[in-house]
Amino acid sequence: MLGYYCRLALKSFRHTPGLTALMVGAIAFGISTCIVTLTVYHAMSGNPIWWKNNVLYAVTMDSRDPLPTGSLADSDSLPDQFSYADATYLYGSSIPRHKAIVATMSGALSGAPDQSAAALVHLRATSMGFFRMFDVPFEYGGPWDAAADRGPEPVIVLSRDENDKLFGGADSVGRSILLDNHPFRIVGVLDRWNPQPQFYDLTVRSFGNASDAYIPFASGVQLRLWPHGHVSCWGADDPHTYPQLIGSSCVWILLWVELPDAASREHFRAYMDAYWAAQHKMGRFQRPRDNSLWPVSRWLTHHHVVTDNSRLLLRLAFAFLAVCLINTVGIELTKFLRAAPLTGVRRALGASRRHIFLQHLVETAVIALAGSALGLALSWAELDAIHALYSGSNDAYGLLAHFDPLGVLWALGLAALATIIAGLYPAWRIGRVPPALHLKSQ
Amino acid sequence: MMTLNVRPVLSALSRNRTGALLVALEIAIALAVMVNAAWIISQRVQEIESPTGIDTRDTFAIGFAALDGRSDIGTAEREDLAYVRSLPGVIAASATSSVPLSYYGQGGSVSQDPGPRAPAILERSLQVDESALDTLGVHIIAGRSFSATDIQPLSHKIFSGSPEAVITQSLAHRLFPNGNALGKPIYAGDNSPIIVVGITSDFIGSVWGMPSYNTVLYPQTPGGFGAYFCLVRTRPGDTQALLQRAQRHLATSNPDRVIISAQTLEYYRQRLAAENRAVVIFLTLVTALILSVTCLGIFGLTAFNVSTRTKQIGTLRAVGARKRDVVAHFLIENAIVLIVGAVAGCTLALGFGYWLSDQYQLPRLDLHYLAIGVVTLAVIGQLAAWQPARRAAAVPPSVATRTI
């Protein structure tokens, strides 16, 4: 029966090729617009580490100086980061299963065979927990161990791109390289890893490239590498030397912990609160207590990672799809009703209302499928174009406009379903037409 | 003659109520989307075009950082500045601590009163030399700018150590809403006064979050952070060529420092506007597509109606209607659907516009856009139905006498 309906549908299309092309084309454009905006939106709002959403937490405490009321300061939001003293104290806790100190520094790498001149690189000064907690994949070697964090030892992990640049992509584990003229031993090379948004460090921007190299935090401090990310100071703090920076209450260090169950979470909260109380008595932390543990999803929402623009475009894209669907429904309704004489003959020959309904539904479904297939191809091309247009800069659209199969399939399914649902009314209407009305000769 | 034609139109419409209503609905949504999209586009274009206050077309910036914290960056800075000033085609060059319109920079807060507890205004801080304002194309509107002797040498004491500063007009208004800022002291979180010696026209400093016109210029040699930037203003048209030439030379002229960036200011300006531009492009495409889909829909449906109502048209012609009347019949039918759609569309557009301005902090929809939208849709909608209507007029009256 299905084959027969398909043949009837094709016959009907041949009868009105222009209208059919219009319907398919409109649906294709509507679907592709929705897919493109959905892809960008989904990539922007997606949690790149969703499988760990209930164990990973960003730690924050409100260490700002209390300002007088009626301040003219335009934006003074809760700090993401900690000062050196606070970060090292909280990091010292043995409660979390894994923990990571995360800071941004910059240094000059030199001494590699494929290198002509020294290069300034974006350094992530962190701890071995970083790689474990964020499931960072390695191509060669692995992360350093806890002893290297404590030592600290001059060890370094390179990103894949940096390894390509310095060693031509070869296995460089065990080799030595100079960071600011100090020898460092390469213990690992990462595989491709650049989760977007960069949930682990949203202080400078939400989307961008991952770091070029990773070193133990204490090694960075030992080398007196100045923080290269976002540094905020309050009150009279104005450090000019490294010891001043370490001793100040300027914040420049992020803290992430892995707390697998409610018990460890409560335990860690108590630890934070005890530290807060002690510091409060000494005159620090004068603002109302605000110690928080942020799961990644809430962390991303808190940072407004999804911009208003992408939400707006998403809504307009759906409005456009609605217009295309209504267009289709209107055309189909008219077409079906005008073909009523033919339907009357069929009914007279014994087709039940259900048969008529199914036949016309199949016709709608063929258009829906054709439109969806064309829409899919169109959106592939559109995403490619966006990627080409924006990939030069570090813009979000360039990084995000990659074809995300899951998101696209979801969008496609939704649109195809919507088209078929939209076709229900015309198919039902034509089924209700009394056959005798159209069997009279005109 | 015209009133006689409306009744058959209405009765024809009533036979295909749902179809006509669907077209009206499509027109309503299309109008709502198009009008609001056009409104948002105009807002965004305004934002893109909003003045940076800087002459971005003829200026580029090269950023440098010391490889080793101990090397003397002051010498490198002097040499680099001397080199770029020696290039033919360079009008002015200056050493600064960051590039306006870029994402790297420093900021703080300043207030009228001393002490860390005084109410303060966030600003972007910029260390400059005596040529900075000329290089950027920024004007002094009150007081004076810095002379070469005012510029403090390179040190680690940054910003707040300065005895004087130049601020932008917008910051001056916010700090001293009642009067002249010239000669008054401002404080950057401690008790040492910084005297305002000059006020400049507004310009956007380095960007963090939203671009801001509040900037404080300090007469200090940059490099205390380990980085400095050479801003260079060239003769019109020479900017790209000079940027490449300078970059090639400076990349290898000094092993103690590396180039960390080399871009025209126009690049930074475009990058700031990138998201807005993407929105404008997308909205323009969607508007064009919606208009096309709606038009083609009207065209297609009218053509289809004509092709299936040939007997009625023939009958009309047989009882005396002229070709003109047949065309008018279909155009009036289309017009009624357009009017119903437009009325519903106006309500929808206003509602949608109200909701958008609420959600996204946009100003209220300008009714001019609504009027233009209605007229555009009406004209294009009628044009779409024109060709099928003319084909209807070509149906001969003899069709009425045939039985099939």
Task: Give a short synopsis of this structure.
The complex is a heterodimer of chains A (442) and B (404). Chain A is an alpha+beta fold. Chain A contains 17 helices and ten strands.
* Spans of at least 5 consecutive residues with low confidence of chain B: none
Give the number of domains of chain A: 2
- Greatest interface: A-B, 67 and 71 residues
Biggest pleated-sheet summary of chain A: 6 strands, mixed, barrel
Secondary-structure element order of chain A, as H and E? HHEHEEHEHEHEEEHHEHEHHHHHHHH
What ranges of chain A have pLDDT less than 50 throughout 5 or more consecutive residues? 68-75
Structural class of chain B: alpha+beta
Helical content of chain A, roughly? 40-55%
Walkthrough of the structure:
The complex is a heterodimer of chains A (442) and B (404). Chain A is an alpha+beta fold and 442 residues long. Helices cover 50% and strands 14% of the residues of chain A. Chain A has helices spanning 2-15, 17-45, 84-91, 129-133, 146-150, 160-167, 217-222, 242-247, 262-281, 296-302, 308-338, 340-348, 353-390, 396-400, 405-422, 424-432, 436-439; strands at residues 56-60, 98-110, 119-126, 138-141, 155-158, 176-179, 182-190, 213-216, 254-258, 292-295. With 404 residues, chain B is of the alpha+beta class. Chain B has helices spanning 2-15, 17-49, 73-86, 132-136, 169-175, 239-253, 265-272, 274-308, 310-318, 323-359, 367-393; strands at residues 59-66, 90-96, 106-110, 121-128, 140-143, 164-168, 185-186, 194-200, 215-219, 227-234, 257-264. At the A-B interface, helix 2 and helix 11 of A face helix 2 and helix 8 of B.
List keywords for this structure.
heterodimer; A: 442 residues; alpha+beta; 2 domains; six-stranded mixed barrel; 17 helices; elongated; B: 404 residues; seven-stranded mixed β-sheet; four-stranded antiparallel β-sheet; 11 strands
Secondary structure: elements and pairs:
The complex is a heterodimer of chains A (442) and B (404).
Chain A (H helix, E strand, L loop, with lengths): L1 H14 L1 H29 L10 E5 L23 H8 L6 E13 L8 E8 L2 H5 L4 E4 L4 H5 L4 E4 L1 H8 L8 E4 L2 E9 L22 E4 H6 L19 H6 L6 E5 L3 H20 L10 E4 H7 L5 H31 L1 H9 L4 H38 L5 H5 L4 H18 L1 H9 L3 H4 L3
Helix pairs in contact in A: 1-13, 2-11, 2-13, 2-15, 11-15, 11-16, 13-15, 13-16
Chain B lengths: L1 H14 L1 H33 L9 E8 L6 H14 L3 E7 L9 E5 L10 E8 L3 H5 L3 E4 L20 E5 H7 L9 E2 L7 E7 L14 E5 L7 E8 L4 H15 L3 E8 H8 L1 H35 L1 H9 L4 H37 L7 H27 L11
Parallel strand pairs in B: 4-9, 6-8
Antiparallel strand pairs in B: 1-10, 1-11, 2-10, 3-4, 5-8, 6-9, 7-8
Helix pairs in contact in B: 1-10, 2-8, 2-10, 2-11, 8-11, 10-11
